[in-house]
Amino acid sequence: MRRGSGLGRDEQLDVGAAYAAHGPELYRFALRQLGDGGAAQDVVQEVFLRAWRAADSFDPQLAGLRTWLFAIARNVVVDEVRRLAVRPWQAQLTEPRADQLPARDGIDAGLVDAWVVEEALGRISPDHRTAIVQTHLRGRPHDEVAAELGIPVGTLRSRVFYGLKSLRLAMEEMGVEP
């Protein structure tokens, strides 16, 4: 299955190769999140269906294929959790069998979220990025960061505000629900 993408006129997004390279990791990610092998398989199928349908929007300049696929997977898992919350009778109440449990490979939702945030931070201005990293991610006080940067506290607060708006926009452009 090939479909055109943002890769260029001569290059194509090879969904089959992407599935071979990333399908097992996406399955383990979904299984950890949902605890149901069947639902995890459905998530992986939906991820590649959405990727195939949205291949034109994939731009390797914005995000790597793996990051893009995991962002889609995160959204599909959220959709599945919401669906089950509305229709709880559809949720399977059984625990996954031992052979369905994934090998711990270090990929989890927190790590995927960190990759997505890191990718989005790289797309905003350096001033906004510094303000967000120092105040939100490192938890430093605004007055301390402003003094270190040699700017008024109000300017720093403004950079944080507009930086968060830019970060949200960058994540939306990546196809991620912030």
TrEMBL record:
Q: Which UniProt keywords apply?
A: DNA-binding, Sigma factor, Transcription, Transcription regulation
The Gene Ontology biological process terms listed for this entry are:
DNA-templated transcription initiation
Residues covered by the RNA polymerase sigma-70 region domain? 19-84, 120-168
What domain of life?
Bacteria
- Key word Transcription present: yes
Q: Which GO terms describe its molecular function?
A: DNA binding; sigma factor activity
UniProt lists the family membership as follows: Belongs to the sigma-70 factor family. ECF subfamily.
Q: Under what name is this protein listed?
A: RNA polymerase sigma factor
Its lineage opens with: Bacteria, Bacillati, Actinomycetota, Actinomycetes, Geodermatophilales
